[in-house]
Amino acid sequence: MVKIKNIELGDFPLLLAPMEDVSDPPFRKLCKAYGADVVYTEFISSEGLIRNAAKSVKKLDIYESERPVGIQVFGHDIDSMLRTVEIVSESKPDFIDINFGCPVKKVVNKGAGAGLLKDIPRMVAIAKTMVDNTSLPVTVKTRLGWDHQSIEIERIAESLQDVGIAALAIHGRTRSQMYKGNASWEPIANVKNNPRMHIPIFANGDINTPEKALQIRDQYGLDGAMIGRASIGNPWFFAQVKHYLETGKQLPLPTISERVDVARRHLEMATQWNGEVVGMLETRRHYANYFKGIPNFKPYRLKMQTAPTKEDVFAVFEEVLAVFDPIAK
Description:
2 domains; globular; Non-ribosomal Peptide Synthetase Peptidyl Carrier Protein, Chain A; eight-stranded parallel beta barrel; TIM Barrel; two-stranded antiparallel ribbon; single chain; 44% helix
């Protein structure tokens, strides 16, 4: 049984990665329904929380049905991160996660996210400050290192564990790689196999097939798989992975009617949570994957992405059922 402190996650948990403008409450709810064991909020700026910025505060919304859920925060200033602990704790997450891995330039240039891979003492000091000032478990998501010349993930992992970090998710790329090339899981396995390490170690990066999740578990011996981009517009990926891990067989692809049902539910929840304009914008990125692999589908996807109202999108969904679903014909 894998645990984050006293939170039981199962034998090989699947975690929905924190993703900006993706892992909001509506999408997290869908992923939980299809088997995600742990979900994270989008990453939240410590400075935004302190300034009470509306967008940052909105991201603190979590719901009982999501648990266990972690709120992920990022920042560079130790005092700001300390103040963030108090603000985040009021939302009563199951744990707080620190982002030491975001490679985006605007985050890194402020010395936050993966920028802290160039300042390991500050990274560890931030982690220690947060651990020492909350009763909640504190976890970390990071990368292998800043670049291939500075991969020190084993030393970083030991230092984070020493100050009380309860679990560690590692993306198998350096910051310099961004999302290019292939993720390397062997260095993550080296962290797990370090006899000094006893906290859960989760792998992230390129886990986009059930077979790769099996490899993460059986070949590399890691404690769980954190799934990011493979889940976008594809919440049933978690069910597919779990079925494959249990049986060695592939689940059938979702039917047209399942795809439409999930897309409809997603849009409905997104507009309820964030208003029609923003809710529609934030679900558009999912449509390509919701209907991936359907021949001659492009015109319908364009209609979904350009429809002016929620009702217009629902009308396109009905059209899709009529054209593509044999049962509906």
